[in-house]
């Protein structure tokens, strides 16, 4: 690690600590994710190996860049581009001031997030942990999708995947209902939840358990009565029946316009087969203002 000078700790997660540092070869500020390999026989955590492998071939302006991997002294150091802040910090700041984000800013953030997602999905990569903390924002307002520890490559036909992914508040109903074959629509649901949170300045589905979360989704969007979702292993015919979609009522006194609400409603569809794709979302009229 002679090429990097550590400055300060900026975060800590399950598998390591993140430091702000200086790359001594070019004096650029970088972020170093340090994973300590405590037991040699256990090797490198699978999430870290996956993150390295995926980021090596995902190169996009809206995805955080992995510069280098340095392995020494029982430590694995991942050197990333340094990004100043994240979306959660920005949302918390706005909530404290009780002022909505300007609509054009929400539009710019969403467009960049969807660009990153469309790029990943086109390369058959699911992120599987999209939440405000994993959406980094630099000082110029540029979005960087980060933390690919739970990301997976997928193929057609879909193979069985774990259901234990995506932070609860941003997790789609099919995962809560036991689906073990899923695709890009799981990320679209998460992005839709973030879209709503950018407008409301509070999470759309704050919950303390999986069943609480599922019922809050049904209360807002309606309990499904037929279709593929009702065939999933955890679906019960005894679930409470909410029959009306109340999504629009959540945004009556907010800056979200009709086109934004239409795009959001296409993301937050209980049946994953009917959710809009990231590439189609980028073509939605909601973003026309950015293309002029």
UniProtKB/TrEMBL annotation:
Occurrences of domain Protein kinase (ranges): 4-287
Top enzyme class: transferase
Binding positions for ATP per the UniProt entry: 33
BP GO annotations: G1/S transition of mitotic cell cycle; regulation of G2/M transition of mitotic cell cycle; regulation of gene expression; signal transduction
Keywords: ATP-binding, Kinase, Nucleotide-binding, Serine/threonine-protein kinase, Transferase
EC number: 2.7.11.22
InterPro entries, A to Z: CDK, Kinase-like_dom_sf, Prot_kinase_dom, Protein_kinase_ATP_BS, Ser/Thr_kinase_AS
Cellular component annotations (GO), alphabetically ordered: cyclin-dependent protein kinase holoenzyme complex; cytoplasm; nucleus
Signal peptide: none
Catalytic activity: L-threonyl-[protein] + ATP = O-phospho-L-threonyl-[protein] + ADP + H(+); L-seryl-[protein] + ATP = O-phospho-L-seryl-[protein] + ADP + H(+)
GO MF term set: ATP binding; cyclin binding; cyclin-dependent protein serine/threonine kinase activity
SMART domains according to UniProt: S_TKc
A Pfam family this chain is assigned to: Pkinase
Family classification: Belongs to the protein kinase superfamily. CMGC Ser/Thr protein kinase family. CDC2/CDKX subfamily.
Function: Probably involved in the control of the cell cycle.
Protein name as it appears in the record: cyclin-dependent kinase
Organism: Naegleria gruberi
Lineage start: Eukaryota, Discoba, Heterolobosea, Tetramitia, Eutetramitia
């Amino acid at each position: 690690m002679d090429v990097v000078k550590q400055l300060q700790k900026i975060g800590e997660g399950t598998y390591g600590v993140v430091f702000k540092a200086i790359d001594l070869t070019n004096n650029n500020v970088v972020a170093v994710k340090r994973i300590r390999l405590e037991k040699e026989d256990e090797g490198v955590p699978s999430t870290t190996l996956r993150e390295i492998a995926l980021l090596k071939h995902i190169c996009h302006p809206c995805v955080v860049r992995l510069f280098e991997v340095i392995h020494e002294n029982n430590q694995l150091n991942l050197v990333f581009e340094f990004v100043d802040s994240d979306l959660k910090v920005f949302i918390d700041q706005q909530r404290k001031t009780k002022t909505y984000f300007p609509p054009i800013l929400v539009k710019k953030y969403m467009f960049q997030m969807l660009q990153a997602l469309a790029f990943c999905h086109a390369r058959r990569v699911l992120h599987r942990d999209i939440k405000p903390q994993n959406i980094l924002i630099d000082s110029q307002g540029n979005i960087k999708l980060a933390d690919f520890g739970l990301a997976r490559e997928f193929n057609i036909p879909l193979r069985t995947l774990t259901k234990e992914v995506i932070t609860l508040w941003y997790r789609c109903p099919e995962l809560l209902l036991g689906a073990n074959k899923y695709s890009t629509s799981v990320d679209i649901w998460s992005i839709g939840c973030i879209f709503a949170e950018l407008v409301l300045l509070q999470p759309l589905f704050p919950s303390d358990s999986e069943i609480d979360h599922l019922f809050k989704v049904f209360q807002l969007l309606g309990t499904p009565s037929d279709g593929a979702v009702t065939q999933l292993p955890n679906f019960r015919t005894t679930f409470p029946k909410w029959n009306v979609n109340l999504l629009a009522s959540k945004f009556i006194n907010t800056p979200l316009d009709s086109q934004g609400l239409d795009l959001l409603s296409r993301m937050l569809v209980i049946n994953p087969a009917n959710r809009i794709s990231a590439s189609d979302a980028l073509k939605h009229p909601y973003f026309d203002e950015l293309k002029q």
